[in-house]
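Review form for a predicted model. The reviewer records the input and the model, then writes brief findings.
Reviewer: anonymous (R2)
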Amino acid sequence: MEYGDSLDRALDSVPDIGSAGDRLSVPDAVAQTDGAFTRFTNLDGVADALNRETEHLHRFVQQTLATSGKLDDGVGRYNGDFDDRDFEGVIDDYTEEYVRCSECGLPDTRLVQEDRTLMLRCDACGAFRPVTKNSRSKETQSTQEDVETGETYTVKVTDTGRKGDGVAHRGDYTIFVPGAEEGDVVDIYIKNTSGNLAFARID
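Model under review:
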């Protein structure tokens, strides 16, 4: 077979992903108080935008927020008082772990089972890696001392959240710091925590 023909066949076999990675658009989470519970009203829409099963995202929400919940017609209902930012923080974590390729950064990925191991395979660059199962709910009690409401800490901002807030990490906590930018080292005051998420202000 001529080289040109071989190249054409190889190109034909590459998935047609276009620039989907640049167009990843995830709707903002919508939280709705329901007595002692909180509804994640557009959970199904978020899962659809991420091209993942709603049930899978629902389980991740429960584990990350260390709570129990129920999925009904695409709406998640969770025991506890949460708000939009709580759910958006979970979405960010889920996207990094289960959607975005760690090599090229694109979301053109699939979850596949290989030899009993859940793998994230990228259709854009061909990279694949094992997915680490979320175990934060099991570690919540042992990590409470890492971040406490009303305390101040010095942290380095390493990421930017979907709302533009700076994101820092301490132990197993993800801390959202409005007004901080990636690379900043800041003193912060913890206003409140929820599961393994913390919300702070620059002190």
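Findings: Helices lie at 3-13, 43-49, 54-65, 84-98, 136-143.
Further findings: Residues 140-202 form a domain with the OB fold (Dihydrolipoamide Acetyltransferase, E2P) fold (CATH 2.40.50.140).
Recommendation: see findings above.
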